[in-house]
Amino acid sequence: MFQISRRQNLTENLAGYLFLAPTILILGTFVVLPILYAVFLSLHKVQLLGGIKYEFIGFRNFSRLVEDERVWIALKNTAEYVAIVVPCQTILALVLAVTLNSGIRGKNWWRILYFLPTVTSSAVLTLIFMWIYNTDGLLNDGLAFVGLPTYNWLGDPSVALKGIMIMNIWSTAPFYMVIYLAALQDIPQKLYEAAELDGANTWQQLIYVTIPLLKPVTFFVVAIGIIGTFQLFDQSYIFSGGTGGPNNATLTLVLLIYQAVFRNLQMGYAAAIAFLLAVVIITMTLIQRRLFGGEKM
């Protein structure tokens, strides 16, 4: 009897491992091995021309990060971008979701209209906004029409990154709006009816009913927003032609990784920058998890 039970357990375990094998193989091939290889690269100086050669240099790539002024500039630009874009896109997404969930006329058409930027190519949107941001483009024409100062959005270091921020807030908020819409429709209507019976107006219902119940969803939205914004690359690349200009104003950590690999052929140093980016993202996510109580999700 004991042998039969043992044989049955062995068969069940073997079947379980067979079912897990494809997932383990995929994760190992596309996640674990690349991470291990990145660790290997970060500890070596890699020569690509004339055959690939590896020279072990220890933590020299990481110590170089501290001394590289462009790393600090890229980190500052990226942090500024995240600090402004994530709150703005989250608030805008929530406002749009609450508005569309309130029963306004033609809400299905509004949903489609708002969601269009999300399904449009990022490169196409960037090129459109570069045309809008031109010195004699639509934005400056509009500012001049209402008597406001105009800017050189593409060439002025003080506003170049802000131009990318405006574009991405506008284009990414609809994606999070859909997530909030789904969450709003899951809130029981009887909670609003009870709040209304207690004398709560629409604003008080939003503050004391809707927002607290959306806390787990807000944690998800902010976490995804942080991860996405820290990986800003394509808009910055297209805006600056890959240089991070003007005057490093649009230089980001991911763009710096690209330059290290494809322009300077410094794969080891690029791997070190990538680990810096990973540490920053993980740290920010843990801080945000504590703030929003993500452990209760």
UniProtKB/TrEMBL annotation:
It is found in: Cell membrane. PANTHER family: ABC TRANSPORTER PERMEASE PROTEIN (PTHR30193), INNER MEMBRANE ABC TRANSPORTER PERMEASE PROTEIN YCJO (PTHR30193:SF37). The chain crosses the membrane at residues 14-40, 81-100, 112-133, 159-183, 213-233, 267-287. Residues 75-288 form the ABC transmembrane type-1 domain. Belongs to the binding-protein-dependent transport system permease family. This is Carbohydrate ABC transporter membrane protein 1. Its main location: membrane. Keywords: Cell membrane, Membrane, Transmembrane, Transmembrane helix, Transport. It holds the Pfam family BPD_transp_1. It is a multi-pass membrane protein. The keyword Transmembrane applies. GO terms for biological process: transmembrane transport. InterPro entries: ABC_transporter_permease, MetI-like, MetI-like_sf. It comes from Nostoc cycadae WK-1. GO terms for cellular component: plasma membrane. Coiled coil: none annotated. Signal peptide: none annotated. The keyword Cell wall biogenesis/degradation does not apply.
